[in-house]
Amino acid sequence: LADTMVRLELVEKKAHAAMATCATWAPTNVLYSCSDDQTILKWDQQAEVTGKCCELDAYVTSIAWMPSVGRGVSDVFAVSACDGSFRLVTGSGREEKRVAAHHGACLRVLWNAEGSALYSAGEDGEVKCWSKTGHLRSTLVKAAHPVYAVADGPGGDALAYVCDRRIHVAPVGDAKARQATSWVAHDQVALALDWNAANGLLVSGGEDCRYKVWDSFGRQLYQSQPHVHVVTAVRWSPNGLYFAVGAYDLLKLCDRTGWSCSRESPRSGSIMDICWTADGTQLVGAGGAGALVFAHVVERKHEWKNYEATLTGQRSIHVRDVLTEIDETLDFNRDRVVEMALGYGYLVVSTTTQIYVYNVANFNTPYIFDSPETVSFIQLAEKFFLVLTPAAVAVYTYDGRKVSTPRFAGLRADRLSAPVLSLSPDLVAVVDSTDRRTVRLCDVMTGKPREPAVKHTADVAAVQLNQTPARQTHERQLLLVDRNDELWLYLCGTAEGHKLHTQVDSACWNETSEALCAIADGRLLVWGYPRVAFTDRDLLPGTLTTKDGAEFGQLAQVASFRGTKIVVRRADGAQVTATVAPYSDMLHEYGSQHRWDEAVGVCRFVEDRGCWCALASMALEASNLDVAEISLAALREVDKLQYILYVKSIPSAEARNAELALYKRRPDDAERILLQATPPLVYRAIKMRIRAFQWDKALDLAVKHRSHVDTVLAYRSKYLETYKKTETDDRFKQLNGSVEWSWEQVKSKKDLEKREEAARSGGPPPDKLKLPRFVPAEGGESKDDHK
User: Fold this and answer.
1) How far is residue 638 from each of residues 533, 630, 641, measured CA to CA in Å?
2) Phi and psi (nearest 5°) for 20?
3) Rounded Cα–Cα distance for residues 13 and 162 (Å)
4) Edge-to-edge, what's the strand order for the sheet holding 496-501?
């Protein structure tokens, strides 16, 4: 559980003789600042000037550093000037090229994420696309008003810009299928805009003294109260958790939902531009009074059980055990802290150059190993932890050993963020950045992708794997929230999906059981055992508990779900706690340890339908038909109970497993189980297809194995005779003319198959099996064919 109640630690330094108009960070963590004194200065991260980069013959309006691609480090930045040009300059200050781009001032320059294209916007209302060498590719926009800000879309297929009071989103590159949109964003001229690649949200500011948060469809998610002065700058942090807002003598740090985490009042004049470091821990504001405001994000807090870790400074963490009231202070004198995570008995801390792994039982001897790049995200699991850097996704053990580097074709680690990554004890789930509808599943130990990948019908916004131990990897479950705010549950082994709910704001797995909670449509929803959707979806509504969520408000997020405690973070930053009954945890514990008598005792004591539904599903998953019989009887599910009694009467284990797979609506798995038996149970596989009226598949099996073709023809003839139909299938017409059959012969072969199966299994003779009589389905034959 991470607390977003943070604050900014400010340092103001003045080195320019005139207004500081803009600033940017180089990949080497060197800051370049521009001013109306026509100089570009270089700074280090300790807010000290290290030298002058160059002097220009024009007033600079914006600066943008070319992104680094691959292992190389870019050494070129672009600056826009009031004379309508932009210049390409090296880090040493040499001007490589000057391009006359606009009539009037060139107000903004922006590189795309790949560094292959440069966008410029000017007072003439035009937005142009240039190659990285400064050659004009196209004029994207011709507007009647100046364009003060532009922002690149998350996938690089769209460009947002502000013109007058409106925000416009236009397709770029090959994404011509994307529809251009625009909406009125502010009551007066919009001046600032940014679009975050991690969360897909936009933030804007304008002369109406407000800042607002939008989604990519133009829906307003947050609107601030009017400030005293015009909002002149907005900028997202790289990880999408925060954004900064600048105005006259004002610098605010806000959560992604819009509420203010920290409000500072530097004496720097209007904040004309804001830039973040790549790790998202430090930002700089360029002030109108010529000063630069260096701000560090501190007071980040993480909680797990009775432990609390707080980042008290750039290089120190305070850890407290609230039960024993023991405090520990961890000092990192060499580097500043970039990221940290607490859970599963470990505290993992990443600095700019190293990763520290602490056991909560002993903070004196951590495992320390070098970090090749700046870490942007850490996620913990029971045995491993995941580290995300701009170049790769890596999985480590808690003793510092690198286990794997998940990879697949098209993986772009620089486009990944916390919502689209998830780690479990055996799998890593990653949303494919090239196809947002696909979720790739990689093995933790090897890093290789597993098939099948999860193919969803809409773009995926968030994924999360359950953390409880699974008997096999294909039983791992994946929850998914798509851009339509629909909550889906997938089984990783089969990529089979089931929609649980709509209008979902947030969802989270329980850390210790298979319970799942979500906030949807102003309510708190808790599924005690959602896996029942893959066993018997008719029982799924019985496992759902609904509570009123009026106290959570809109845009609430589930922060954690452990045991019986759910922590929800409201849109204003306050944390609200809700509790659920402990019975789902108890049933999961007893079921995983095969303590079925105790599980039945809990259900009988509680007398809750949800508990019986969960226990029935657990028993069916474990093939414990006795407990399933008790549970279904308690639920008064007579038809399901009758079927379970029939399955119990089947002599062979393979046939019972196949019938259970058929119960779970998996006929292909049932057929595979029967055909893989020794010897193959061909008759049962054929008869299963006949019972499901899948005549073509039944005939294919009979022809392939050269057995029971007459049986298929006999039941097909009976079916047509019962419903007074004529044969229309050419294959059946041909076989009817060449294959002779009689009911006496079919019945004798059927009895022989049953006696042989019973003899191999040591079961009772067929005439002593108590089999159920099924009512014929509408438009179908009777299913009492085993008699």
Assistant:
1) 19, 11, 5
2) -85, 120
3) 31
4) 460-465, 477-482, 487-491, 496-501
Q: How crowded is residue 550: how many other Cβ atoms within 10 Å of its Cβ?
A: 8
Q: What angle do CA 285, 290, 292 make, to 5 degrees?
A: 30
Residue 23 pLDDT greater than 50, yes or no: yes
Find where tokens 């005792």 sit. Answer: 601
Nearest-angstrom CA–CA distance, 161 and 112: 14
Instruction: Give 282's strand partners.
Output: 296
Give the Cα separation of 314 and 351 in Å (integer): 10
Continuous segment of H or E residues that includes residue 758: helix 743-761
pLDDT band at 493 (very low <50, low <70, confident <90, very high): confident
pTM of the full structure: 0.86
Amino acid at site 652:
S
The reply to whether omega before 452 is within 30° of 0 (cis) is yes
> Which pLDDT value is given to residue 150?
96
Q: How many CA atoms lie within 13 A of 751 on its CB side?
A: 8
Residue 628 phi, psi dihedral angles, 5° rounding: -60, -40
Q: Are 573 and 530 in contact (CB under 8 A)?
A: no
Q: What's the CA gap between 258 and 221, in Å, rounded? A: 8
What are residue 139's DSSP bridge partners? Answer: 128
How far apart are the C-alpha atoms of 270 and 684, rounded to whole Å?
80
Q: DSSP states of 512-537 as a string?
A: SSS-EEEEETTEEEEES-GGGGGT-G
Strands 158-163 and 271-276: unpaired
Cα 284 from Cα 12, distance rounded (Å): 10
Q: For the stretch 5-22, what's the b/e string if a residue is b when 16 or more beta carbons lie within 10 angstroms of its beta carbon?
A: ebbbbbebbebbeebbbb
* Angle of CA points 416, 421, 422, to nearest 5°: 165
Look-up of token digits 């494919």: 432
> Residue 231's closest CA among 263, 266, 270?
270
Q: Take residue 406 and report the two structure tokens written for it.
A: 């998940």
SS3 60: strand
Say which residues have a Cβ less than 8 Å from residue 333's Cβ, sequence separation at least 6.
315
Tokens 């932009």, residue located: 86
3-state class of 619 per DSSP?
helix
Residue 670: which of 697, 631, 708 has the closest Cα?
A: 697
Does the pLDDT at position 777 exceed 50? no
Cα separation, 489 vs 478, in Å, equals: 6
Contact by Cβ (8 Å): 597, 587: no
Beta bridge partners of 520: 504, 523
Cα–Cα nearest to 338, from 397, 297, 289: 297
Residue, of 113 and 284, whose pLDDT is higher: 284
- Angle at CA 376, nearest 5°, toward 370 and 377? 95
How does residue 273 score in pLDDT terms, banded at 50, 70 and 90? very high
Using the Cα atoms of residue 96, residue 102, residue 105 and residue 110 in order, give the sign of their dihedral: negative
Q: What amino acid is encoded at 700 in this protein?
A: D
Q: Please check whether residue 293 is in contact with residue 12, taking contact to mean a CB–CB distance below 8 angstroms.
A: yes
CB neighbours (10 Å) of residue 718? Answer: 15
Residue reference for tokens 């119990």: 648
Task: Give the three-state DSSP class for 550.
Answer: coil
- Give the C-alpha separation, 613 to 610, whole Å: 5
Sort residue 6 into left (φ over 0), alpha (ψ -120 to 50) or beta.
Answer: beta
First to last CA, the chain: 59
Report the candidate in 608, 610, 643 with the shortest Cα–Cα distance to residue 628.
643
3 — pLDDT class (breaks 50, 70, 90)? low
Alpha carbons 701 and 686: distance in angstroms, whole number: 6
Spell 275-311 as b/e; 16+ CB within 10 A means b.
bbbbbbbbbbbbbbbbbbbbbbbbbbbbbbbebbbbb
Tens digits of per-residue pLDDT, 669-715? 999 999 999 889 999 999 999 999 999 999 999 999 999 999 999 99
pLDDT surpasses 70 at 551: yes
